[in-house]
Amino acid sequence: MKSLIFLVLSVSLAYGARVFTQRNVHPLSDEMIDRINSIGTTWKAGRNFDEASLPYVKRLLGAKRGSSKKLRQVHHEINEELPESFDARAAWPNCTLIKTIRDQGNCGSGWAFSSVEAMSDRICIASHGELQVSLSAQEIVACSNLGGCDQGLQVAVYIYYATEGIVTGGSYHGDGCMPYDFEPCMHGIEGPIPTCPQSPIPTPSCSKKCAADYEKTFEEDKHYGLTPYVVSSDPKQIMKEIMTNGPISSGITVYADFLNYKSGVYQKTTDHSLGAQGVKIIGWGTENGVDYWLVANSWNEYWGDKGFFKIRRGNNECYIESDIISGLPRL
Description:
Blueprint: H1 2-9, H2 30-38, E1 43-45, H3 54-60, E2 72-74, E3 86-87, H4 88-91, H5 110-126, H6 137-143, H7 154-163, E4 224-225, E5 229-231, H8 235-245, E6 248-255, E7 261-266, E8 273-287, E9 290-296, E10 308-312, E11 324-326, E12 329-330
Parallel strand pairs: 2-5, 7-10
Antiparallel strand pairs: 1-7, 3-8, 4-12, 5-11, 6-8, 8-9, 9-10
Helix pairs in contact: 5-7
């Protein structure tokens, strides 16, 4: 009987058929990984977290879904045929931060990271490589009152960028005014860096001062954005926005199987959602006949495909196409 049930569940996902893995299968178990790899879907699963890490992983998912309907929606006139593939890392090779995978550590701050990363990329792109700064996720987490290590909206980060400005800082012990407080760590399995603490860590306190050895004051170091905007869920509009202005911020609903992503084009095999994660889309392409978005996560380079993942494009997989927020820098 068990084999028969699994056979019914194991419908091919190659062209979009859905498999709803039973909720009584632990998301981080070998059984879940084996099921994903047995059904002939478009991606491969493997171990990124140990089974005991599930409560910790859920705390990482701090993004709130939804963007402001009050913001202007851009519309691009598309008179040319868009390229079949695009990678911002190759399009703007001098902007090296595009290829950098950050680590949010033991803090549900992916919503902040995905925003400041795209902002930093766009400062470089708009300045033709002359200005390369890594904006501070630390300021957003600790000083903006937008959610801290709990939950936050990406659109709120973009509004803060336009009205309050954001200082530099980048990663843990990074260069700039306000580096990130949480050190990189292995999110649930052993590896070359320390394992993340499993217990919750509170949002760090705010001190609106630059690091002691930094040459500017907090106010002098501020970088500002222009009025933010939203992009429609039309994949061609999203593609045109990326190739014109650079990477964009989005969010995904995280389903239980996503935690085990290793390679290929992700599409969900379960209806068991765990939360939401802020991510950065840097390009697109097609793999084995399946269109995808190329996306950067903030769980360090030891998760997934060296920190990146591909997700099915054109069907609003995990709602990635319905929550696009962006903006341009004020240079």
